[in-house]
Amino acid sequence: MSALFNFQSLLLVILLTICTCTYVRAVAPRLIDRNKEGFLGLFWMSARIGERLSPYVALACIAMAITILVQ
Asked: pLDDT digits over 16-69, tens only?
């Protein structure tokens, strides 16, 4: 089933995007910071969410991992 139609998969894709963009911005900030507008601006926004809400994103990743392991 596509990640767009399964809510749990959609949440997983969003969490992985946030975590990946935050990591890439920490390692190579120029890759993320040069595209702040348009479609690629979504990656910049994801990195900002990961930086500002990192404790909540970490808790969400742990919760998602537990739900996947329990299933």
From this structure: 999 999 999 999 989 888 888 889 899 999 999 999 998 999 999 999 999 999
Are 12 and 65 within 8 A, CB to CB? no
With beta carbons less than 8 A apart as the criterion, state whether 22 and 51 touch.
yes
Distance CA 7, CA 62 (A): 17
Helix (H) or strand (E) holding 19: helix 7-27
Contact of 47 with 39, CB cutoff 8 Å: no
Cα 11–Cα 17–Cα 23 angle in degrees, nearest 5: 135
For 1-71, strand residue ranges (E) read: none
